[in-house]
Amino acid sequence: MAQYLPLLVMLILAILFAGLSIVASKLLGPKRPTLAKSAPYECGIVPDHEPAERFPVRFYLVAMIFIVFDIEIIFLFPWAVIFRELGAFGLWAMLIFAAGVFESFVYLIGNGALNWGPAKALNPLTDPGRTTSSTVRRVGSEGRPVGVEQGAA
Are 54 and 76 in contact (CB under 8 A)? Predict the structure, then answer.
């Protein structure tokens, strides 16, 4: 138990420092609330209207992708350090874990987690009426006013 005493002392000091800092800022800090101070901070830009809509679900799906891969890395490093000692059991356990992570990634991609464009432009392959002649604008002299030469500024 004596070997954990420095760790316990450091933990107590950290908690005391955090608590005393919060109490001191509440007691000693200036108390002049204004409307500007209570408004949400938008990178220095004063918001002139409320947001038009809530955050899309895709925003949260990207956050879920980050969390999933963060957890995978947290578990992958210790496994990589001692994978020889774990043997076949460790290999199979990590393969099952990686399959679960991959399954969640496929689920998130399937729900459109990385499709950030407008809904109409998300999947152009679903419109059967699209052809190269209907989607590619041809550049030429037709439709231009008469007397305008190409290359003239």
Answer: no
Answer CATH for 54-115 from 3.40.50.970, 2.60.120.290, 1.10.1670.40, 1.20.58.1610: 1.20.58.1610
> At a CB cut-off of 8 Å and minimum separation 6, what does 130 contact?
124
Residue 148 to residue 153: CA distance in whole angstroms: 9
CA 121 from chain center: how many Å?
Answer: 21
Q: What is the mean pLDDT of each run of 10 residues along the chain (153 residues)?
A: 92 97 91 79 69 71 83 86 88 90 83 67 54 58 58 49
87 Ramachandran zone, left/alpha/beta (phi>0; psi -120 to 50): left
